[in-house]
Write a structure and sequence with these properties.
alpha+beta; three-stranded antiparallel beta sheet; two-stranded antiparallel sheet; 20% strand
């Protein structure tokens, strides 16, 4: 459930209007565009290094991953496959947070478990980047001139930044 807080003055004004019989007013466009109303980026695009090959032989490389919720990390712990083999956790977890992969109608743990090892490693690293930092950029310093700058870690090919 999403809740919005009004400024203290606006609450008092709204209460006074309601008591006087006037309808309560919605927040103005300026109030709605305030920094508090800033949208959180929850989905991140990626390109697999090799690509998932489906049953028809089509290769799917471009996809989208959403931020994980606490539920996403807790539910797989009840999965029997994870209980028998803890390494399977990342497969189930990635199957929950990848929202799109190429033209596949759905992405699930069965898709993830049939990916090449290099793609699985890429997705595990990408998951850590977006969920730990909230973005795929990292601050670095040039070893030659000592100037700080940012690099994009979610490159489209192995070795790209």
């Amino acid at each position: 459930m999403r809740r919005t807080a009004l400024r203290a003055g606006a609450v008092a004004e709204a209460s006074a209007s309601v008591e006087a019989g006037a309808p309560a007013e919605a927040p103005t466009a300026a109030e709605a565009a305030s920094p508090a109303a800033e949208r959180l980026r929850t989905e991140f695009a990626f390109t697999l290094p090799r690509g998932y090959v489906d049953e028809a032989g089509a290769v799917h490389r471009d996809g989208t991953m959403r931020l994980a919720t606490a539920r996403d990390e807790l539910i797989p712990l009840r999965d029997m496959r994870v209980q028998e083999n803890p390494a399977y956790l990342s497969v189930v977890l990635l199957g929950r947070v990848i929202t799109r992969l190429g033209t596949l109608p759905a992405v699930h743990d069965g898709v993830v478990e049939n990916m090449f090892a290099s793609d699985l490693a890429f997705l595990q690293d990408f998951y850590r980047q977006v969920n730990a930092e909230g973005h795929t950029r990292a601050g670095v310093t040039c070893p030659h001139c000592d100037q700080p700058f940012e690099v994009e870690l979610g490159g489209s090919r192995l070795g790209e930044s």
